Amino acid sequence: MAASLLSALSFSLQNPRETLKVPRPQIPLLGSPLLLRARKALTLPSLLPSRHLSSSERLRSVPNARVSSTPTATRNYEFADGVAEVELRLDIGALGVQSSRDVFVDVDETSLLIRVKVAGTLITLMETDRLFERIKSSETIWYIDEDQLVLNLKKYDADLKWPDIKESWESLSVGIPQLLKGTSVYIIGDSTEINEAVAKELANGIGYVPLYTSELLERYAQQSVDSWVASEGADSVAAAESAVLESLSSHVRTVVATLGGQHGAASRPDRWRHLHAGFTVWLSRSEAIDEASAKEEAQRHIEDGSLAYTKADIVVKLGGWDIGYARDVAQGCLSALKQLTLSDKQLAGKKSLYIRLGCRGDWPNIKPPGWDPSSG
User: Fold this and answer.
1) What CATH number is associated with residue 106?
2) Model confidence, pTM
3) Is residue 293 within a helix (H) or strand (E), and if so which, with residue range?
4) Which of 66, 204, 248, 257 has its CA 20 to 30 Å from the CA of residue 325?
5) What GO MF annotations does this protein's record show (predicted)?
């Protein structure tokens, strides 16, 4: 059945290289259930000691200063991306700031806090602990230009274009495609429902085509996946999904949601040949109580290697699940994809080479052209 399925699906996608254009939603980001965004050899960079005063030190340096509990509107700014730096402009004319001595800017590699002193009260103009990417904090320059406070922040990576000052769903959706370079994304994990919900959000955000192997299989077999498993067994379904993945491996700009459970190809170590054609994201549910323990759990799974899912490029740990969290999880996937692709800028090109050589199963140590997989 798998062979005939592959033939049937060979022409099932029209214009696979066309990007699906989806309007970008403007729904505010809710609290995230994510415990961890991690990868095998990738961890969040440790923060270097900041040369700038912390917010608490700033407070101590301002006599009789009070802190405003309500920050001003954080979208009241202008942002521009240059080659080596980004520029941020905030309107302060209406606040009555008298001099630069009333402005307090605290930065480190990944965070930014801007406050101004007005009538003895410190007002927060902007606060984020997640800049879009790292900056060289010691080279930060700020000054007042008429009614605007201007900050120039030096980028660590001059080649990366910043859509916005902060890492958010909107900025990641715009910024990540430049790093993926058309490479598809495969969502794997124990739950088909979660895989599909996250794949849909992710695809809509970055303008990729969402595809669900469950739908392709059911369309071909004219029965549900559960019925197929009951009638022919999990091995038959896994083999058929492998045929689907082979058909999809040459397509670009897709987000593919795979089957969860033991009947899914991703749960079987010998079915990963074509999954390596894209960036694989493992959505792993966890009972860890905090991010540190979730990270330890993920590392144990990776080192143990008993789960086929540990072959994934990225692991995203979920502390719980509700359909309303799909976008939050998708944002976590984008953030992890950003870290992954920035840590190895040749990775997308390597995926493309792997596809061109026929997805022979030699990932990540790609053999020369003419290599025979049967030779080991």
Assistant:
1) 2.60.40.790
2) 0.81
3) helix 291-304
4) 248
5) kinase activity
